[in-house]
Amino acid sequence: MGVTSTAQAQKFDWKSQRGKTISVSVVKSPWSDILQDRLGEFEKLSGINVNLSVLPEQQARQKLAIDFASGGRTVDVFDSSLTVEKARFAQAGWYEPLNKYMVAGKLDPTYRFDDFFTSARTAVKTQDGSIIGLPWKADVQVLYYRKDLFAQAGLKVPTTLDELEAAAAKLHVPGKMYGYAARGLKNANAYTFAFPLQAFGGRWVDGKGNSTVNNAQAVKALNWYSSMLKKFAPPSVISYNWSEVLGLFQQEQLAMFNDGIGFAVQLEDKSMSKVAGKVGYAVLPGRLAPATYNALAMSSRSGNKDAAFLFMQWATNRAFDKFLVEHGVTSPRQSSWTTATNKPLETIPWAKTYFDALKVAKPAFPEVPPVQEMRDTVGIAIVQAIQGAASKPALDQANRDFQSALNSAK
Question: pLDDT at residue 276 above 70?
Fold first, then answer.
C-alpha cells in the first residue's frame, strides 16, 4: 500500500494527534523490553502520551479477554496472539478493521505494508479482507540440529521424514545422546505435532470447519510422531514442554528437534548454551514451516483510534523492525532480513533459514474459536499414543471432543 503522489504524501503528519493519551497492552518479551526502552522516541515524535502495560503472557491475555467481555474501554492498542485469539476476537467484534486507516494521510508513506512476508499479511486478514492488526512477530518451526555431529557421522540435512528418522537412529545413544525430541506435554505438544500433520497432508478442520483430527492422514502423522518420541526421546518426554527440549539440546544431550525459530538466540548464547556455534538450522523436511503470528491490534472500542494507529505503525515500521532483528527478535518484514544487495543476513546464523521458512510458512493451527480446546483434546491423544495406545481410537475421541467444541462456538 503506497501513496499516489507527493502532494498526498505531504498530508501525513506524525503530530496530527498531539496531546492525546493512549493505553497500550503488551506481553512481556524481548520485543516489549525494546519497545519500552524506546517509547520516549514515539512520544517525542508524535506528542502522544502512552500508558504502556507490560504483563506476563497468561496474565495479560486473561486481563484483556475479561476487559473486552465486560464491555471495557481501557485499552486502545493490544498485542494479539493471532493463533489463539484471531477467530474468537473477530467473531466478537473486538478488533477495529484497519483498512480505512491504511490510506494516504493516515499511513506513513515509508511504511510499506507489502514489505511483510505474504504469510504474515495473510495472517492479519479475516476472510472478508479486513486487516485486523499489523504484524510484529512471525514464529516458524524449523529443524534444529547439531551440525558437528552430522559432520562426524557423514550425514546430510534431512529433507524427508525417512531421512530424519535415519539420522536420529544413527545419532541416538540411549542415556547419553537422544536422536530426536519434541514437545510431549499435553496442549503444548499440538504445536510441534503440526509438523508431521502437515507432512502427511493432514488438516485440523475441513473446508466446512468440521474436525478432521482422526482422518487417515492424522493417524499416520501421530503414528510417526509417537514412534519417533518413543524410540529416540527421553522416557519422560510426555512431561516435556519447549523449555525441557531446549534445555536438553543446550546441554549437548540431543541431536535434533523441531520448534519455533525464536529459540535460536538462546542456543547461540554462550553463557547458557554448551552448543553455541554448533547448531545447524534448516527448513523442515518437505519444505514445511508451521507458523504462529502476533500483531498489534486496535480495540474497536478505542476512543483514540487515529492516535492508536500512529503508535501501531511506528512500532512496526521498517526502521524499528530492523533494530529488533539486530537485537535478536524475529520479524515478519522481508527487508529486515536482507542486506542492501537483497541477500539474507550473514551475521545471524539462522537468518537464511528463517527467511526461507517464511516463504513457505503455513499456519500451525486453524482459525477457529476453540483453538485451546483443540490443543487440549489432541494433546491428550498424543500423550496416549506416546504411552503406547493405538493412535486411531485416541484421535477418534479427540475428534468427538473437538467437534463438540466447534459446535458450541457456532
Answer: yes
